[in-house]
Amino acid sequence: MTMVTTGRGHRKIQATLALCLAAALLGQVRPAAAQEEGEWRAIDIRQEIRTHFDRLPYGWWIREPELHLNTYEVEVHLPDWWRGNPTSAVNNLCPERQSRIWKVAKILTLRPFYQKRPWPEVDCRR
Q1: What start and end residues bound the annotated signal peptide (predicted)?
Q2: Which of 22, 29, 66, 73 gives 109 a disulfide partner, CB atoms 3.0 to 4.6 angstroms apart?
């Protein structure tokens, strides 16, 4: 036997199903602030910086990133055979705006080291 619902009973069932669906969806979603906070904790900033500089040109390398006064500093070594302006070249290595580095760091200072001496540093900001 098939049960036929009236218009009023049908609306009641639809409302109940919609309420259950909304409760299920709301129960699974975390607030945006909690998501960002969780992502922030999951970031290993030094590893993110190392990963960013994995794509350096042949012969270039970096020292381990250091934290000084809320600024992460990276010394970028350029080979002696390279020719050009090291400060300008290092300026092109700043992370892009959407990089995960900016979730933790406000400033990333890049210090070029070329021909056995330091050159003027570059501050990268989001």
Answers
A1: 1-34
A2: 73
